[in-house]
Amino acid sequence: MLITLCYLYLWARWGRRPAALVRTTVQRLRASRCSFTFCGAAAQPRDARVCLSRGGRVFCVGESQCIDDLNKWALFLVSPFILEAEHIAFVTESIWVQGENLQRPSSSSDTIVKWSDCCLPLACRPGDPYQLIARASVDDFSKLGVAFLEDRLQMANGLIPQKIVSVHLQESALKELKDQASDTQARTLQPNGESPVESKPEPDAMEHMGRSDSQVLGSAPTQGKGSAPGGEPAGESDREVGSVEHCHLHLSSCHECLELENSTIESVKFASAENIPDLPYDYSSGLEGIADLSLEREGRRVNITGKAPNILLYVGSDSQDAQGRLQLVRSALADCVDTDCYTLYHLSPESALRDPWSDNCLLLVIATREPVPEDLSRKFMAYLSQGGKVLGLSSSFTLAGFRVMSKAPLQDTVQSLVFCKADQSRVKLSVLSSGGVYEGGPDQLLSLGKLQGHLDSEDEDRLIVQVPFGTRGGEAVLCQVHLELPPSSPIVQTQEDFDLLKSNNSRRYEVLKEILTTLGLSCDLTQVPALTPIYLLSVAEEIRVPLMQWLGKHVDPEGVIKSSKLSLKFVSSYTSEIEVTPSAIPVVTDMEAFSSENFDFEIYRQNLQTKKLGKTVLFAEVTPTTMSLLDGLMFEMPQEMGLIAIAARQTQGKGRGRNVWLSPKGCALSTLLVSIPLRSHLGQRIPFVQHLMSLAVVEAVRSIPEYQNPILTREEVGGSLS
After folding, report:
1. Residue (of 147, 193, 137) closest to 677 by Cα position
2. What is the pLDDT of residue 299?
3. How many CB atoms lie within 10 A of CB 193?
4. Which residues pair with 603 in a beta bridge?
5. Which residues lie within the region annotated Disordered (predicted)?
6. Distances (CA, A) of 636 to 553, 555, 564
7. Rounded CA separation 456/453 (Å)
8. What is the bridge-based pairing of β-strands 363-366 and 389-393?
9. How many angstroms separate the CA atoms of 278 and 289, rounded?
């Protein structure tokens, strides 16, 4: 009631002055953490109170809108989210309109308000709508809102604003983002010129080259504005030394940035993909001249469908029970599939409805007894119709006329199952039943695939069915037995049942692997290699001497440098008695003791042509992730050392956000530390560093004899993928 009276008072006082009304409302009510929304009248949030209406658009106040998960947002700023007390964080939702359909603001050009002039962009999330998080002062936020209401707000490159809503960024999300930014984003530091060897790194925008551990060492072969010969980013002019002004980074919608990005991508395409035939999205549809696109590499099937190697796990609502079930399903699948080939991710109900997951999913696992909501069921069916693969584990999800019938006497009891493999052989085993059986008409039974499982009883109730779906190779294997649960599961009722399930555990895995293989996955497991020590290598003696002097001053009495993620213990030599763990890794400083079949340091040294980059190498045969190796050194060690971490294999490779990075043997795995002045041309366009790096790698490969002009024939496609 008090808020309503406040609105009436403001309206009576300010009347036809919308800018003053909006600004005063925001100033007086923002301390209450309510949410301010500018949108079309039809999109007004439920229970929100309208303060101002202009031409079919409204300014309203409602309950606080919070953002607590920033993992799916792409960060723009090189610093974490730091909001001054007088600033407001807000989300702008826009649609992308191009060409003749582009509608310009209706007002004259001298009253146009440019979005980028009134706020500092923080992050974006592409999609429909295109979302941008930004921060602005109260005055600028109000200015943006009024311009939106009066249809004179302009965004870059065809983006048309549809909604502006203030948000509260929760502390947990900010902390998580800060931790992520310390690993993957450039840092906003003070530009500076050359520094002596003994000084700390001069504050530039410090960035890990390769957000996903996978970037290959290589220096940019070209130079231009903002670059110096040798592929090193150039510093700023003398007049800019000491400047601490914080600069905006260009948005992905910026016209200038898009032109640069497109030209870079086209260069990469021209350099690396001439006359390479396009492979089909769905390998079940075939390709002329290639009989089987499930190629073999070292005896394993290779996915060339174009889809990311993701296995998505849907376990229903976000309850404690669901989280426990998620861990059980993840553990069972990880014991069956090659973790060098696939990653397992949780698919939440919200993400299943919001995100384009179907384009990046090799297998969808549905493991929940809860009924699948209708809107989600439609999503899953659409995925199947596009050629998707589904594994149902004790789930109510069905298709093609089948239904799950409950039989209470079977629930959570040990039953004898007869399982028919794809080659018509049979496996008999004891399993834990969910209490459901599949029933379908004669037409459905005739359409079943070869995989089937039924009770070893007179009724032969169906507990496992393989159901083809659609014309593009989609199929589902549905199970009403707990293949995901170990014998030690709490729902196992007696010691006798436990003993029976334990004696059949190997056959449980045999059935699960048969199902996964039929659905197109590889179940040829590779042994996880043991971690190895790191070797500290320098390309030149003039780097080695000051490096060892610096280490002598910065290690503790036991020769250790500690960081938040691991401890590096510097030793002159390595013996088997020295333990190597993910949190404590020895670093061998004696270069004479180094030898490797996977990394020829002499060839590396002979071909390195940079001034700084890659001069000091941390090399490991097997390490958790190269990202962590630099953690305790990158902001302490002088930039002249040119630090890079290289590994032959990773056991816990990290991608962007919470993504996993697959790191089988044979990949080029490295993390390179690059210092880029934030005020430079390149520093203003940090995202393009990845494209320049990719182009440098392609050109480096093309400099090798017989790789200058690669043209692949259809017969060579398989070889090129390995």
Report:
1. 193
2. 40
3. 13
4. none
5. 177-242
6. 12, 12, 14
7. 9
8. parallel
9. 13
Amino acid found at 225: K
Q: What is the pLDDT of residues 620-661, one digit of tens each?
A: 999 988 888 887 777 677 877 888 999 998 888 877 667 777
Reported pTM: 0.53
Q: Which two tokens stand for residue 558?
A: 């036991």
Look-up: residue for tokens 């150039």?
A: 234
Beta-bridge partner residues of 427: 419
CA distances from 574 to 118, 479, 625 (A): 58, 51, 20
pLDDT class of 180 with cuts at 50, 70, 90: low
Asked if residue 699 has pLDDT above 70, the reply is yes
How far apart, in whole angstroms, are the C-alpha atoms of residue 253 and residue 161? 13
d(CA 602, CA 604): 5
pLDDT value of residue 211 = 37
Q: Quick one: which of 80, 84, 119 has its CA closest to 248? A: 119
Strand blocks (E) in 15-118 = 35-40, 49-54, 57-62, 66-67, 74-75, 87-96, 113-114
Contacts for 109 with CB less than 8 Å, ≥ 6 apart: none
Q: Is 298 left (phi over 0), alpha (psi -120 to 50) or beta?
A: left
- Per-residue pLDDT at 647: 92
Q: H-type helices in 307-454, by residue range?
A: 320-334, 349-354, 374-385, 442-446
